[in-house]
Amino acid sequence: MRVIFILIILFVNTVNAAEFAITMDDPNTFSKPLFSSEERNQKILSQLNFLNTKAALFVSGVRVNSDEGVNLLKNWDREGHLIGNHTFSHMYYNNSKLSFEEYSADIMKVEPLIKNLDNFEKIFRFPYLKSGNSKSKRDKVRSFLKSNKYKYGYVTIDASDWYISDRLEKRLEKNPKANIDGYRTYYLNHMWNRATYYDELAQKVIGRSPKHTILIHHNLLNALFLKDLVKHFESKGWKLIDAKEAFNDPIFLQEPNTVPSGESIVWALAKENGGQGLRYPAEDGQYEKEKMDKLGL
Ligand SMILES: [Zn+2]
Questions:
Q1: Which of 23, 81, 94, 263 could form a cystine bridge with 282, CB 3.0-4.6 A?
Q2: Closest Cα partner for 131 from 105, 73, 80, 92?
């Protein structure tokens, strides 16, 4: 009996033992509650340092196009984190009024801000994870990225940390002494919920857990709780790896045939395979609003 019990535990742990890396979008120098923008950035970096991990930072130029922004990027570079391209203006490529020509120019426009950093690599992430509202726009940008030697910086685990952070910031703007424990709990549960969802979806579609890239943002929520998030995943048996290692997984070479194109690469592959019951957009604040309202967050 005891042997069977131990075997079951071993089996459960093996099933859940996925690997994940931190990929963070949209570094910025915005003014937010609790910390200065410099302190906020420092808190994110020191947690990554504590976790002994190298993340990937996807840079949208418009948010760091200043002396302070350039300094922020230098600090990330000095710590050895991978630096990727996230366009200059952070436009929504699935907007039918936005042309491939305008968008591709915007991809190149951010390069002067990042290309001289030691840890810059030609790896590209679409803002909002939107990669084309028509087959023609999707295929043009794919060819453009390839001819400019860019790799895809896909997300495997999409989530809405930005929405939780927005609400946390609004609460603190109203009351700087508000108790914020509930935001931490909500955040950890939300991320774990999305992680298990995308991991199970991946196992169905590609038959295995890929090396995951979780999408989070450079915000107050992560200045406060990034370390707790990683510890939460580790407590479930998941293993933190460097972003560069994660991006070597063959899933990042995939080009799913879906229109509109985008979302998590796992979601898009499921969609391509006729996946039923996939919501669209895959992630958004609208799915979290009611739950957070109920909890008074
Ligand atoms: Zn972004």
A1: 263
A2: 92
φ, ψ at 86 (rounded to 5°): -130, 30
Instruction: Tell me the per-residue pLDDT of 135-166, one tens digit each, with 9 for 90 and over.
Output: 999 999 999 999 999 999 999 999 999 999 99
> Ramachandran region of residue 26, left (φ > 0), alpha (ψ -120 to 50) or beta?
left
Number of Cβ within 10 Å of residue 195's Cβ equals 21
CA 217 to chain centre: 7
Q: How many CA atoms lie within 13 A of 200 on its CB side?
A: 6
Cut 0.85: pTM above it: yes
- Find the 153 Cα to ligand 1 centroid distance in Å: 12
- Domains of the chain from N-terminus onward: 18-295 (3.20.20.370)
Cα dihedral 144→57→40→47 (10° resolution): 170
Q: Could you tell me the distance, in angstroms and rounded to a whole number, from the CA of residue 127 to the centre of ligand 1?
A: 4
Residue 276: its pLDDT value, please?
84
Q: From ligand 1's centre to the CA of 34, what distance in Å?
A: 23
User: Which residues have their alpha-adjacent CB atom under 5 A from ion ligand 1?
Assistant: 25-26, 127
Within 8 A by CB and 6+ apart from 67, the residues are: none
CB count within 10 Å of CB 110 equals 23
Instruction: Find where tokens 């935001």 sit.
Output: 183
